[in-house]
Amino acid sequence: MKPASLLARAEQVARQVADQMTDEKRSERLTRRLAATTSKLTVNTWRPSGLSMGGAGLAVMCAAFGDAFPDQGWDRTGHHLLSGAVAEIESSSLDSSLFTGVVGAAAAVWLSSRDGTRYQGLLRQLDSLILPLMRSMSEEPPPGPHTYDVVNGVAGWVGFLRTRPRSPESDLTAQAVAGVLAGVLSDEGLRRMGYRRARPGRPSETVVDCGLAHGVAGVLAALSLLRSHVELDRREITDAIRWGGRWLAGQARTVGAQILWPDAVALTPQEGRPDDAQPLHAGSWCHGSSGVARALYLAGVAVGEPTFRALAVEAMRGHCALHPELASPSVCHGLAGQLLLTLGFAHDTGDRVFEAGAAQLAELLFHRYRDGLPLGFREVEAENGTEVDHPGLLRGSQGVALALLAGHLKQPPRWGRLLLMW
Prior knowledge:
By secondary structure, the chain is mainly α. It is built from 15 helices and eight strands. It has helices spanning 3-22, 24-37, 55-68, 74-91, 102-112, 120-139, 154-161, 168-184, 216-230, 235-250, 289-303, 306-321, 335-349, 352-368, 397-406; strands at residues 195-199, 202-209, 253-255, 258-262, 264-266, 280-281, 379-380, 387-388.
């Protein structure tokens, strides 16, 4: 596919999303229809400050397209969206997550700030709120598996910390966050991420998610990226990354020509061995093997472990030879996420297999586009196959537009750090 064609389609989709969601009447109609059709209303509610589903995420898209297409009004649109996000922060009590909370809104401001040259007063205010909050929560993390994941918890904070330039206070915060993440990557620590799951014909069991969005891969990617970003050279950090890499490598299964990972692993006395009854998934960012492979590759880079990198590259080459069947076009569990993961491997390795694979995935996305749809693409919800017009970053057309734009860029886009892609 020619880059000019890819770029034109990316701009077209982005403009459709922006036009729909910045026009009050059209936005109201679209979000009302989404609420009536989605099977996941709790995560598909539009908020001005939302990164996954809201104005903050749309501001991130505007910043990316403003860089690619200067003097076309993207900055004005992004500024308007950030104003709404900040107003909600000031008037509401938001959680501390990256994709639905105040941390994500702050990340949107940093990504829109042109390396801190704009919104300087606002950035100082947000730092004075968020960095102490992160350190305080790191001292005594609340119980529950979501405390540590990318979407809801501490691993997602690394996405924020890497969108901004370093400072003494952010480095201090990074040290505290690294300690929390390292504490999970051990035989005993892993149980903090465990949750109960029942399946037909089997007794209820405690399992741990393997994936990038909610599981061990997300924690491993976050700690690996943080070690490189802040130059953490503490032994417990390196040991934790090596433990996490070995644990994930130990869950890999070879199925035909594919290296795959289960979506979850039972925490039993034989927890180092794969559970044959667990489903295996090839593609996608959130639960798929491609996301796990990316985390393993990043761990190999962070601690200089070639066996981690080799396994990750072999797995991803297999996914390029036989692209996963993905019903959704989205970043979270669809083609756009698979495209971004493949672009990450292409950039890091220079392997033409990944370049060709990315081009093929972009072509598959093209085939999903429909001129008559308000947002160009329809999200196919993994829960029940429902098709919805979705404007969001993780699950909607906003993320698809950003992925298509990323395919045109010479360097991985900064916003991809939010997903712990690079």
